[in-house]
Design brief:
alpha+beta, Dna Ligase, domain 1, 320 residues, 10 helices, globular, D-amino Acid Aminotransferase, Chain A, domain 1, six-stranded antiparallel β-sheet, 2 domains, single chain
Amino acid sequence: MPHLKFFKDISKTDVAIAGGKGASLGEMTQAGISVPPGFIVLASAFDRFIEETELKEEIAARLAEVNPADTNSVDRASNILRDVIHDRAMPADLTAEILVAFDQLGAEHVAVRSSATAEDSEIASWAGELETYLNTTRENVAEMVKKCWSSLFTPRAIFYRHEKNLIDTQVSVAVVVQQMVQSEISGICFTVHPVTEDYDQLIIEAGFGLGEAIVSGQITPDSYIVSKKKMELMDVYVSTQNKHLVHGAGQLKDGEINHWIELSEAEGSKQKLSAPQVLELAKLCCQIEQHYGFPCDIEWAFANNQFFITQSRPITTLKK
């Protein structure tokens, strides 16, 4: 399959073909970290799609018309580019490759996640700029790959190009297709405290349900501070969570079947992770930091009494 690679065949040196997210997931898989299995639709697939559908000139022309100070011009370019990508058919052989790989994965639901080839580099971190589609099925996986491709041209992503002076830079996008973890608890970890920049302090944020709720800022998570040297819990903040995002029988929207469930005050005010769980996760995150040799921003999920790592990237905001 020339345009696809499974995580086990990808390493951190493959950012150019797999994007930052894809390369990271492959690297951690090879390092024996607990990563849900998956494969990557390589950036070459997007490049081929753009070439064969003769959209390269259209993209360049529309981006050239953008004035970042004029939000209407940004929205107009975004709407046109996303529509033309959605309207073009994916090459039949590429669709077949994706479905064969999906079947080999053996998962009922997958997360389909954009992975820009300029992602997580020193000049740009595309984290949060592109789109993710959770609980995608075999029936609509190819369509969700196209939606991830087109998310390279959301208004946020176009603004980001201007902000980072990437408007004339060739940016491509790979797509991660990963077995879905139906998280009971999920969150993020910074292996260096992002505010105090204390390199001994690791901070974990945790909430009930799927991690999209925290990443999108729709819930306030618990936070736990751990001393890395002593591997002990230094501080605990428990938030009250009034709803959580779960997979279930909801309205089908954009390939996702996720919905919010209300939590009682008694349920939502519980500490999300126990002290032993916090330390178990902290050790796993320290292992990832030691493997890479730099401070990491890590996304994690907990299901069936096991922690899974769904992403790791460099922390790009540290001044020290």
